[in-house]
Structures are given as structure tokens and as C-alpha cells.
């Protein structure tokens, strides 16, 4: 997963629901120095809550993304993130940085 | 040149030599050999049964030479022996962050131990036994199912067939090669009992992704409180150590490591707690002893009240009767005085 262009991550999930696995795996996919380069906010719901888990992302170009983690699955989330990150990396390359 | 073979020393020479009977006559094997009769004991008693395996290594359904089988055993024994454990998700912590976190944790727990020595109770040093370990989630889930859902009714017999004191008439269970009657963690019975309970346990959804455990050998809320205030501080109940009291905790490496640790839940004496529940367990004042003291105080208060209530009735009766008696006595005295005057 390309994480260079993410500036903000905020997730909410109830770990006792099996479908929260996506959000948790997404957090574990972030690199070790992620807390220095982006703002990460994790909100754990109590065990009884049935609220859906979601991942909110902000990119360097200001694009915001709200991903429904329950439907997409971890592969889908990674695909969505990479789709936008590749565009950003191509722009970066073309600008000659 | 001295002789190479030394003559026997005097001490050895003094030992009387066994006399060997040298047969002068030779016998041929073709002669009718007389088989000596079996000794009497062998005729009356059967020989002790032979164990087909060492008692510490019963036959196993899962291949015991694999690492995952041994991990399953290890996790099952951990689950059976650990009443209190906290589950954390660790997101890409580095080695030096782990080292720092473990160091700070053990320092804080040692402090709790030192504080607990002072009361009258015998000190139980728990700090060394509280460990943080990363687990293989799939195998841990399997071990959890075995521990929670597989309760064999018949304990395996403790008879050791190789022990000479075992009576030979004792019925030592004879295990078949497939190990049908075994009940240990790796046995076929355990495997089949938990085969269809994959999602049945409340902790099952938590067991995915990178996970680590903090295990306590005893339910000790004080230690848990210290651990929580180090690992996931939340200001009102679990304040982080101040910079002056514990400057090491504020190191950059430890802080960046702690940001990546995520407390998910707890398992306390077989029950599953979420984040709030874990914090509640940690916030029990004074630990189990504190709870017991509260209970005792409450019961004593009730006892005192009950005795007061019960006594009060008796007391009032006593006072009434006593008052009546003195009254009667006074009347009698007056009556006797009056009769004396009349005489």
C-alpha cells in the first residue's frame, strides 16, 4: 500500500465485531513511522455498539475519502487508497521532484 | 624399563577373590536340556502391564514435531493458568520500542510489588511473572476453543504402568494407536469437540491481525492499573507517569511505540471485557483485598444493625419489666408500712 500521500487517518470500529477486521488491518498496514508523517486517530466503540466501522482518509492534495470498511474488505480499501496515491505519485514524477 | 602392567596394589589384593567354579566336565548341548520351572511368583501373578509410550508423551493426534502443535499446547496452558490477560493490537512496532516498553512496564510493576510488600500479607512478587508476548492469532484461537469448549468428563487415569507400586490387577487403560481415549490438548477428542466452534467464542473476532498479550498470573488490579497507566494512559483513572517521576517513559522511542499499541479488550477469569470493562477491572481500589475489606465492613455494619434491632426489643421488655417490678415493690413496701402503722 502506498502511504506516502496520506496525511490524516481516522478510524472508528468496535473490535468485537468480525467486520471490524478491515479497519484493524488497515491500521497495521501503516508503516512504523506513520505517526510522525500523518495524524492518526483511532476510536474504539464499546462492545455492545453495532455502529459500522469506517476509515476516513485525507491526502496531500486535500482529497478526502470515507471508506466503508465493512463492505470493501482490506483488499478493496487498499485498492481505493492506491488508486488515488498512484495518481499523486505520477503527478509528483511529472513535476520533476 | 619397568613393566608396563603394574602389580595390583595392596588394597586391591586384599579383596578376596571370587572363586570361580571351573567346570572340569564338558557337556554337549545335544543332551536333553532341562528347562527350569518358572518361579512361583511368575506363575501366580501377571507381569505389570507395559506402557507403550512415556507418560509425558501420550500419542498425539496433531503431529507433535511441528512448531504449531507445540504453540497450541503452550497457548492452552497459558490460557488455563492465566486468569487475567489484556489484548493489544501492535501496529508495526520496532524492536527498540518493544525493548523500551517492556523495560518501563517491568519497572512500574516492580514498583507496585515493592509497595505491596509493606502490608501484613505475605509478599507475592508478580512483576517477574507478568509478561508481554506476541501471539500467533490463529493458533491462539484454536487453543482458546480447546480450553473453553472441551471439558473432558473422564480424567485420564493417573496410574503409571511403569511404577512398581501399581498393582498388576489395576485396569490400566490401553490406548489404541489412534489415541481414541486420550483427552489432552492435542488429542483427537479435543480436535473433534471444538471443530465446529470456530466463531462461537466472544473473543474470536478479536483474534485477527497483529496481536500481543499481557498476561498476569493472578487477578491483581493494582498491577493491572500500573500496566494500563504505562501502556494506554487515560487521564482520570489511569494517569500517565509524570515527566519528573518517570522521565524514561517520555522518551521518543517509547512514546512512538505506545501510540502504536492499541488496547482491544481483556479476559478476566474466563469472561471477556471490552476496553471500558478492562478499565473498570483495573480501577478496583486496593485490588481484591480492598474488595474483601469493603465486603467485610458492609457485613459488619449490617451485623451491628441487626443485633441492635434485636437487642432493643429485649432491652425495652427488660426496662418495662424492671420498672413494673420496682413499682410493685414500692407498693408492697408502702402497704407493709401502712399495716405496721395500723398495728
From TrEMBL, chain A:
Pfam families: MRP_L53 (PF10780). GO terms for cellular component: mitochondrial large ribosomal subunit. InterPro entries: Ribosomal_mL53, Ribosomal_mL53_fung. Belongs to the mitochondrion-specific ribosomal protein mL53 family. One of its GO terms (molecular function) is structural constituent of ribosome. The lineage of its organism: Eukaryota, Fungi, Dikarya, Ascomycota, Pezizomycotina. Keywords: Mitochondrion, Ribonucleoprotein, Ribosomal protein. This is Large ribosomal subunit protein mL53. Its main location: mitochondrion. The keyword Ribosomal protein applies. It is found in: Mitochondrion.
Automatic annotation (TrEMBL), chain B:
Residues 1-62 are annotated as: Disordered. Coiled coil: none annotated. InterPro entries: Ribosomal_uL10-like_sf, Ribosomal_uL10_bac_type. Residues 46-62 have a biased composition (Pro residues). It comes from the Eukaryota. Gene3D superfamilies: 3.30.70.1730. Residues 29-39 have a biased composition (Low complexity). Belongs to the universal ribosomal protein uL10 family. This is Uncharacterized protein. It comes from Hyaloscypha bicolor E. The lineage of its organism: Eukaryota, Fungi, Dikarya, Ascomycota, Pezizomycotina.
Amino acid at each position: 500500500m502506498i502511504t506516502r500521500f496520506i496525511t490524516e487517518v481516522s478510524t472508528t470500529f468496535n473490535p468485537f465485531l468480525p467486520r471490524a477486521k478491515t479497519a484493524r488491518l488497515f491500521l497495521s498496514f501503516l508503516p512504523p513511522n506513520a505517526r510522525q508523517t500523518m495524524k492518526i486517530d483511532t476510536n474504539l466503540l464499546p462492545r455492545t455498539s453495532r455502529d459500522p466501522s469506517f476509515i476516513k482518509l485525507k491526502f496531500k492534495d486535500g482529497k478526502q475519502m470515507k471508506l466503508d470498511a465493512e463492505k470493501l474488505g482490506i483488499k478493496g480499501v487498499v485498492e481505493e487508497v492506491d488508486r488515488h496515491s498512484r495518481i499523486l505519485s505520477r503527478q509528483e514524477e511529472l513535476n520533476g521532484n | 624399563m619397568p613393566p608396563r602392567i603394574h602389580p595390583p596394589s595392596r588394597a586391591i589384593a586384599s579383596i578376596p577373590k571370587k572363586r570361580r567354579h571351573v567346570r572340569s566336565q564338558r557337556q554337549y548341548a545335544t543332551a536333553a536340556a532341562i528347562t527350569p520351572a518358572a518361579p512361583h511368583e511368575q506363575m501366580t501373578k501377571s507381569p505389570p502391564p507395559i506402557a507403550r509410550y512415556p507418560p509425558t508423551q501420550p500419542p498425539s493426534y496433531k503431529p507433535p514435531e511441528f512448531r504449531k502443535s507445540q504453540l497450541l499446547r503452550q497457548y492452552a496452558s497459558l490460557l488455563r493458568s492465566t486468569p487475567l490477560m489484556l489484548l493489544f493490537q501492535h501496529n508495526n512496532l520496532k524492536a527498540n520500542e518493544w525493548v523500551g516498553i517492556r523495560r518501563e512496564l517491568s519497572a512500574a510493576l516492580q514498583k507496585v510489588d515493592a509497595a505491596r510488600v509493606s502490608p501484613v500479607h505475605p509478599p507475592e512478587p508478580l512483576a517477574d511473572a507478568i509478561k508481554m508476548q506476541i501471539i500467533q492469532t490463529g493458533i491462539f484461537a484454536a487453543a482458546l476453543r480447546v480450553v473453553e469448549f472441551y471439558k473432558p468428563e473422564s480424567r485420564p487415569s493417573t496410574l503409571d504402568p511403569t511404577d512398581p507400586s501399581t498393582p498388576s490387577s489395576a485396569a490400566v487403560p490401553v490406548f489404541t494407536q489412534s489415541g481414541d481415549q486420550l483427552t489432552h490438548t492435542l488429542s483427537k477428542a479435543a480436535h473433534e469437540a471444538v471443530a465446529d466452534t470456530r466463531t462461537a467464542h466472544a473473543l474470536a473476532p478479536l483474534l485477527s491481525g497483529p496481536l500481543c498479550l499481557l498476561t498476569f498470573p493472578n487477578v491483581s488490579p493494582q498491577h493491572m492499573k500500573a500496566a494500563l497507566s504505562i501502556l494506554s494512559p487515560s487521564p482520570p483513572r489511569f494517569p500517565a507517569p509524570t515527566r519528573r517521576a518517570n522521565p524514561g517513559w517520555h522518551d521518543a522511542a517509547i512514546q512512538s511505540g505506545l501510540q502504536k499499541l492499541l488496547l482491544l479488550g481483556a479476559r478476566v477469569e474466563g469472561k471477556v471485557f471490552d476496553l471500558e470493562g478492562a478499565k473498570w477491572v483495573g480501577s478496583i481500589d486496593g485490588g481484591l483485598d480492598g474488595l474483601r475489606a469493603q465486603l467485610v465492613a458492609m457485613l459488619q455494619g449490617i451485623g451491628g444493625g441487626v443485633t441492635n434491632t434485636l437487642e432493643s426489643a429485649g432491652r425495652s421488655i427488660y426496662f418495662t419489666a424492671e420498672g413494673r417490678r420496682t413499682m410493685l415493690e414500692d407498693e408492697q413496701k408502702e402497704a407493709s408500712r401502712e399495716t405496721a402503722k395500723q398495728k
